[in-house]
Description:
- This protein is of the alpha/beta class.
- 29% of the residues lie in helices and 20% in strands.
- It is built from twelve helices and 14 strands.
- Strand 13, helix 11 and strand 14 form a beta-alpha-beta unit.
- The longest helix has 12 residues.
Amino acid sequence: DFQENPRWDVGWDEFQLSLWPRFEQCWTRLLLQQDRWIRCATFTLFAEIAGYLLKSLDGAVFPQLEYFGVTSYSEIDEAIALDCTLNFSAPALKYFRTDVRPALNSSPKVFRNLTQLKLNKISIEAAHFHRTLSIMSSTLITLVLSEMHFYSTRFPALSPVTLPRLEYLALCMVHEVYPIMPFSSETRNVTSLLCQGSPQLKTLHISGGKDFLIHVVANTTTFPAVQRLEYAVARLERHVCAFLSRFPSLRELDLLRPTNASSLLKDITNNERSQPLWPNLHSIGIQGHVEGSVPLGFVQNRARIRHPIQTLLLSEGTIAKVP
């Protein structure tokens, strides 16, 4: 409890005087056991500690390390940014998680064998992210981008990148800010590159996807292998129907927290009067309010056109309203 243990509620200067010596001693002992490390996750309140921890790993060899995660609850300024780049050897490293942008400046050997990458709350130049992604492009299976901000002083001329093994992609509140340029089939930003370059993508999760939808629809991007779509937005945009038509192999559709799911389901039902948008769809889940008769009509229509829904997941409030 923070009130009962005031030592948790200290500033950097007080931490250095009271807790730092013991902390540093423990960390030094852990480094002596680096050949035994399998998972390492750090969560630091002070940016100075994040810099110290990451700098202390320079030249280290972790033969068994599979997971590495670093989170700093304080912003990393330029004074310690160089200390936050990684230069260790971990040939078995598969999973990397961080919200520390300078960590993406690390040695390529850190990223070369990654299969899972999770980035959170990082503002980064699009071209910089593109270069980092290219290092792990042949091995990456899972990519999660949460509250990311991509930017450039000019619209990025990003070359295509292929992620031949990527199966799971999550884009949660991803924003891209570039100079104004009309959308066209030749326009490439980070999110469209990820989608166009992932031929084996099986699951796509999108949260807060207004700009994403506009760009994908403009680029006529299709998702031939995606079997599960998790679409989590507070409001379904007008582009959503055109977007949903790009998933010919869809088997599972989850609409998470939409305010107008009833309208969307009605539109889908009307478009499926003669033939289904998704011949293989067998499961649909809706979190949030929806008129009880609407999902029932959707399920009945799918049965009528001989593509029945096997699983329908609704909230308790919606179930109570089903006729």
